[in-house]
Fold this protein.
Amino acid sequence: MNTAWRRSHPVALVAALIDSVKDTVALILAMLAIALPNRDAPIVLTIIGVVIALLVACMLVFPVLRWLTTRYRLDENGVTQRSGMLNRKRTTISYDHIHAISSSSPIYMRPFQVVTLDITAAGGESGITLRGVPSSVQLELEVARQASGTPAGPAPAVAAGTRETGGQGWCAGPVPAAAAEDEVQVPGGRPVIEGELVFRASVRDILLFAVTDLGLFAALIVVYGFIEQLRDVVPEAMMDNAQDSVVRFATGSVVAFIGTVAVVFAVLVGASIIGSLLRFHGFEVWRRGGDLVVVRGAFTRRITTIAVDRIQTVAIRRTLIRRALHLCSVRLGLGAVATAEGEDADSTGADVLPVIGDDRVYAVLQRMLPEWELVPPRMRRTGRGLLRYYLFTLLAVSTIGMVGAAIWALASGDAMAWLWMLAPAALMVWWGLCRCLKAAAEGYMLPDGKRIVAAGATMLTLFTVFTRRSRIQSVERSTTPWRQRRGVESLTLPLFVSNGINTLRFTALRSADAATLAAWAEHGLVRADTSPGRRVDAAAGGMVDNGYVQDDEWRT
Amino acid sequence: MGENGTDGLHTQREWRSLPERIKRVWLLRSVLTDTAVVLVCAVLASIFIASDWWGFWQALVLGLIAAWAVLELATQPLQTRYAYRFTRFSIGERDLKLHTGWLFRKSVTVPFNRVQHVDTKQGPLLRSFAMTSVSVHTAVGEHEIEAVDDAEAMRIVELITSRVLAVKEDL
């Protein structure tokens, strides 16, 4: 292994300079905007001239200094990056602490066969970003990480060129390996990874993702924010005129109104489709030994390598829209966020199945992660019959809100103030709907002493999480004296996950279920009725009476 | 101080209460906090009145906060009594168990093979009563034995550390 200190490619300096110019240009324009109205005041012009000169100097000098002083090294133990001239910083991540390696290859880097690598370590440990390094460095890192003690598997190899499997949606069988070379990528070519191609997103999959993505509606807020920002630069009268014209046209007739709504919706869907096609173009998931390799992106090609033994959870999510279309998405829970350079933290390499049909999801997951033995679970619903415990807090808060609004209306004497009572009422309806869904969804299954499947809901999205006992950090049971008398508690199992569902939470469950879950989490014991097809071993686990020896958790 | 119970299996485990002196710490802490809250409310009310910005809502909000603090202080002896009765800890062979709260009761089990590190803390109040708190950190959080005698704290840290080493598995 070459353990010498290495410098990044000059293209990284060019990229850093461009970023620096982008960051500074707005400030320079603002300075010029101040200078123009004051062009008759020499002192103002002088000060602004000096400030602009300093900004330009900083804009050019800092990236150059940073590039000149940044070095990285791969030695026997780990990867190290050092940077800085006055304040020197040195970060080392040992190979066995690497959770994920993400590479990003924008179009301007491809001719030089260099990439930006994001190396993420567990939790709070700081990661390392190597900009403008040869694509072969990713391979070096993966080989070193696998050699450092991760599960055995064929040494990673990535071959140059294009290879088609002809599969639609996903490829069932192993793909014959192409000739292995020490290159991750070739100019203009698609990276081919030695291993088994377990999923390939078709154009139909990407389109389904685009039209069912909730970000579609978030775009409306972005557009509204953009229009509001325009008010700062466009004369107010012009904006008001434009707004009046649009409103007049849209409300002129029923046809115009429907047409306007349809056009807005079509634009949003179009933007979502284009964005998704760029982001997920060529989306593939490969299984290579002990790693999952996720490849995606049109202009900027991103490759994320995830060590399977670092996976904390597998979460299947179903939003309201996707539930109606029998679709779902799958995200792997990791101890570190596997975000590539320039990537949205909400959509990373850990999203191994952005969208897939309910009927196919378990078949694909079994090929992707055979060691997880993922099958459709038969859940024991814990919230059934306990809806009042889910609704009590929201009813109390909403009632207090409505009483407060009523007091205010009485005190102010304004008849319109009574309308404020609608706010807590609306909150009660929305929150109540979410809590009802949560009560219906929460549940668990314990396939054996090591694995758990938990289900729940976040707002209107349902999720099913698969994880292992070794991932549970603690068992937290809570109750109140009046709940305790009725044998009702809540239970929380925190997980070491940085990029998604990081807690298995049961808002209200019976003490027998809480005791079962605690016994499983603490001692690996399972009850027969929570583990289909499993026999009770009373001698080994002490399973008697209601499936648990005696629960003295709340004894004082 | 200690008492026996089961840990859900057939094995016995010893439960321990905090030192009796913690009751005085809780009372003192409550006196200091609640007095500070009432004083802040009084100062804010004076400022509002002086600046002619005193009305129904200001009076209602500050009055509720001050009333809550006074009520909390008045019921503190009772709270302390029940909280002391319920707050216990148990160091088992494979895990640490904590019981806290009296109205909102919480029971936490921390398996030793999830423990990242153990540390001790001693604020001015605990120091004046010769007590120390012991915190056990996992990858995602912190769990605290609120107070034990100074010497006992060191012994507990060593005990937990040795048991962590004994049961540590690969994550």
About this structure: Chain A has 14 helices and 22 strands. Chain A has a mean pLDDT of 80. Residues 429 and 461 of chain A are 17 Å apart (CA to CA).
